[in-house]
Every structure is written in C-alpha cells, then in structure tokens.
Write a structure and sequence with these properties.
The chain is an alpha+beta fold. The protein has one domain. It is built from two helices and four strands; from the N terminus they run βαββαβ. The chain has a two-stranded antiparallel ribbon. The chain has a two-stranded antiparallel sheet with strand order 2-3. The longest helix has 6 residues. The chain is globular, with a radius of gyration of 12 Å.
C-alpha cells in the first residue's frame, strides 16, 4: 500500500534518510528512499522524492492510498 500521510507512510522515510530535522538536506546514492532513482534523496525542491508518492495516490488528496497487488 502506498501512503503519503498517516502511520507507516512512504514519505517519512525520505525525511529520516536525510537526517530528519532539516528538510532541505540531501544525500547521494541509490537508496530505497531515492524514489525517482536520480542518485539523490531529496525531501523538498525540484525533482524531490516526495512528490512522486503524492502523484501516484492521486495528487490532490494526501490521505488517499494506493493498494497494490503482486501478480
């Protein structure tokens, strides 16, 4: 399940990966938190790793979720 807000969401690990207290920090490397696979984990700004999560759940309602199933 893809979640933008709430418990066990997919957005908070990105913030935690960059240090948790300064949202403008970045780290480099192809980590699990690097959602767009550009080699940089970013929480805010252009090409951040947070926006694709919001876009995939519908883009306008952050409390939506996206349920997935394996084939």
């Amino acid at each position: 399940m893809l979640k933008y807000t709430g418990a066990d969401n997919d957005r908070d690990p990105i913030l935690q990966a960059i240090g948790g207290s300064v949202p403008t920090n970045t780290i480099t490397g192809y980590l699990m938190e690097d959602v767009n696979m550009d080699g940089v984990v970013k929480y805010v700004g252009t090409a951040n790793d947070r926006d694709p999560i919001l876009q995939n759940i519908g883009g306008s309602v952050p409390t939506n979720t996206l349920q997935g199933a394996l084939p």
